[in-house]
Amino acid sequence: MESLLVITNTDAGTADEETLDRALASLFDHVSIEVTATSNPGELDGVLHRAGSRVIVVAGGDGSLHAVVAALHRRHDLSKAVIGLLPLGTGNDFARAMEIPLDTEDAARVLVDGHVRPVDLIVDELGNVVVNNVHVGAGAQASRRGQRWKERLGKIGYGRLNLGRAGYPIGAVLSAVKPPYLRLRVEVDGEVVVDLDQPVLMVAIGNGPTVGGGAALAPEADPEDGKVDVMISRAIGPWARLAYAAHLTRGRHHERDDVIYLRGERVSISGDEFYCAADGEIYGPERHRTWHVEKAAYSMVLP
Questions:
Q1: Helix, strand, or coil here: 116?
Q2: 128: CB partners within 8 A, 6+ apart
């Protein structure tokens, strides 16, 4: 590896810039490095246009990684890309999934000493990508509410040492008070696993195992196995919801009788209007969505 193109977000704070500078300082003797900041899709596209054969290093969190992967996918350049990750986000769930150190200086050493391995990607019928996880129902509602709290609490503290990570747990608690029961038809690899006569609390489709900074929503998901993990919760009653939430905090909810947990390559959801939370981005309402796995869609530098 001879050259790195490091992409940061112009909204990064001073603390993140200082952390990144310390991380990169140890690499200058090994590789040539260009650091560039982008603030919108147009700028990002321009930077990727001149990436050439360089390793593209995302200095940021799951949202920043999603933006780069999505842009490369749109450009039809993703399959040729090699991506590195310096986790500067709040949750860093995909870094956790790939066992990339959360200490940025340790993660920088992976860029020199690590191995390039292929990684899977989730893509919907419109060509939108999901790097880590997409979920609907109570989880998406929690994310919608949690995002507001993340923005508020992220202002309390300094740099990454702020209360923003508490946003998702707060959103989850608020959503548990009045969760959205949905009647959905869920198909996995063409087989109906839940139909409209069975209300569900939430459905999660995981390439990576965790969301919200470590909540193991799809605890057995592996971004390198060529499949997604599908978790469907039917914990509708109040006691069932409390028990489900308690098991979720320990990553054992998928063992419950009212939870369906399986793997597949193609997942379709239709029925009641629902919102989606995909890599932290909320969109909807939707009435139908289909996702499939693109195996070994791109490569990453990993430990």
A1: strand
A2: 70, 278
Helices (H), 250-296: none
Predicted structure pTM score: 0.87
b/e 8-26 (16+ beta carbons within 10 angstroms → b): bbeebeeebbebbeebbee
CA distance 7 to 59: 6
* Closest C-alpha to 203, from 262, 120, 257, 116: 262
Q: pLDDT digit of tens for each residue in the chain (303 aa)?
A: 679 999 998 775 555 788 888 888 988 888 899 999 998 888 999 999 999 999 999 999 999 999 999 999 999 999 999 999 999 988 899 999 999 999 999 999 999 999 999 999 999 999 999 999 999 988 777 666 655 545 554 444 444 444 445 445 545 555 555 556 899 999 999 999 999 999 999 999 999 999 888 889 999 999 999 999 999 999 988 888 888 888 888 889 999 999 999 999 999 999 999 999 999 888 988 999 999 999 999 999 999
